[in-house]
Write a structure and sequence with these properties.
metal-binding; globular; binds magnesium ion; binds 6-O-phosphono-alpha-D-glucopyranose; 6 strands
């Protein structure tokens, strides 16, 4: 039985994944670099500095440590500007209802996000009280696919890994959940979640039968 569900934030609870992409795209425009669509998917779940490195590599350019710091900072300033527009319309449809349904059934809820802005997003939307524990980019030293963010979440919730499920839109996040020994739910339209080894693919919250999910009958 599942006793806790840990949700990723960007692309699973809120469509802030699009705002991250916009921030990187704007940085690329500033620099005269390309920002291909497939790179956008690769940045899901990946920390700020590692995301920048992926963009640099995909453009075949190098930068000094100082230049990287400045560019990562600039992207974050763009992202924070976009966050000011985030309201309920940016919530992934059904996410809050799903969390409330799980809570009603006594399931503990965690947040497991690589973002250092995660709590700002939750507070801005007034949904922080839906989460019993939140682990964010400020709490971790290793990025997904390392399991740290979820392992720490499970520990803080006091639930053993095999009784935790993780909702993730990122390939790196599904890999992290699997490495943590948790049930991995690949959420949304990202390519490659199946190949990454997701235990269950959930295209959207309307698809999800919560009772069947908690009973464990949706995956083998
Ligand atoms: C999440 C997003 C990534 C983002 C990362 C770091 O994992 O999916 O796109 O790069 O958080 O976010 P931050 O707000 O700390 O730059
Ligand atoms: Mg995500």
């Amino acid at each position: 039985t599942i006793e806790a569900v840990i949700f990723d934030l960007d692309g699973v609870v809120v469509y802030t994944d699009e705002y991250h992409s916009r921030g990187w795209r704007r940085l690329c425009d500033d620099q005269g670099w390309r920002f291909p669509e497939e790179v956008s998917d690769q940045l899901r779940g990946v920390s700020r500095m590692e995301s920048l490195q992926i963009i640099l590599d995909s453009n075949g350019v190098s930068a000094t440590g100082e230049e990287k710091e400045e560019m990562a900072h600039r992207k974050n300033e763009y992202y924070k500007t976009y966050l000011q527009e985030v309201d309920e319309s940016a919530l992934v449809p059904g996410a809050v209802d799903c969390i409330r349904e799980l809570r009603r059934r006594g399931v503990l809820i965690g947040l497991g996000s690589a973002s250092k802005n995660a709590l700002t997003v939750l507070r801005g939307l007034g949904i922080e009280e839906l989460f019993d524990q939140a682990v964010t980019g400020l709490d971790i030293t290793r990025s997904k696919p390392d399991p740290q963010v979820f392992t720490l979440g499970g520990q803080r919730l006091g639930v053993s890994p095999e009784r935790c499920a993780v909702f993730e839109d990122a390939v790196s996040g599904v890999e992290a959940a699997n490495a943590a020994g948790m049930i991995s739910v690949g959420f949304g339209p990202t390519q490659g979640l199946d190949q990454a080894g997701a235990d269950l693919l959930v295209p959207d919250y309307a698809w999800l039968d919560i009772d069947a999910f908690l009973a464990g009958t949706l995956w083998s």
